[in-house]
Amino acid sequence: MASDGLPSASAARPSCFVHEDDVPAVTVNDLPPTFDLKHAANPERYAFVRRSFTRPTGASSLGCSLMEVPPGKTAFPRHYHAVRDRTSIS
Predict the structure, then answer these.
(1) Each residue of 55-71: pLDDT tens digit?
(2) Domain range summary for the chain, segments of one domain joined by +
(3) I need a surface site. Which of 2, 21, 40, 87 has the fewest CB within 10 A?
């Protein structure tokens, strides 16, 4: 423990605790061809960096991703999901 009562940066952490730097980043350019945004009206509008924490944390019933979207861009065209829910925190 550090003097402020918080664990030190080098302290061991449970395997389900994952730092974003330890998770591979995926960009819009890394998407498979089946998820091609070239059909969108303005493909240059789309940009993001996504890090999925689901597998690295061992989660099985809940997915979690960190999406970073540059100013003036959007991650995806408007769409909906019939089976899954999505929550965004800004």
Answers:
(1) 998 888 888 889 999 99
(2) 20-68
(3) 87
